[in-house]
Amino acid sequence: MTSPQLGRPGVVSVAGWALVGGAALIAAGMAMETNEYFVSVKVYEDAVADGTVTSGLFEGLSSLFVLAEVTFVFGLAVALATLAVRTARGVPGARTAAWVLAVVAMLCPSASLSGRARDSVGTAGVVQRGVEASLPQWYIPAHIGIEAAALLCLIAGLVLLMTPAARRYFRPAPVSAA
After folding, report:
1. CB atoms within 10 A of CB 178
2. Would you say 146 and 84 are in contact if contact means Cβ atoms under 8 Å apart?
3. pTM value?
4. Residue 5 maps to a domain
């Protein structure tokens, strides 16, 4: 818990809320990415029907991958939000677990951001250009902004948990020899 002479510092509460915000933004980004996936399936089916691209393993393997990715990322976001609230309340083990999950969660938006550059060539480029043409102009920049904001929230939460005030708060109280 916390030592009786110390109250909860504000940085611990702010760090918890930054981590919760990061988790919520990761979930929102994944929802937008899932929508992009369904649009890309439609564009891909149209491209196969037009003869622009040849049919392949896209349908089965990508659907399985997307289902696994969505399940993992939403589960990670819920777990991170739960641990962030517990960290803000001062539960000692939650701080360490939130650190681990936040570092793993930071890979989700950054992997999506790096994937955008990779998807601009070949058959994927045909599909990506079709997706970009099918979505409103604001959609992809908003998605990138949400993912960047999620990264910033997670980084801010982790930095705040490293401050001396937060470290003192989570340090176990010395046991007095009675």
Report:
1. 3
2. no
3. 0.78
4. no
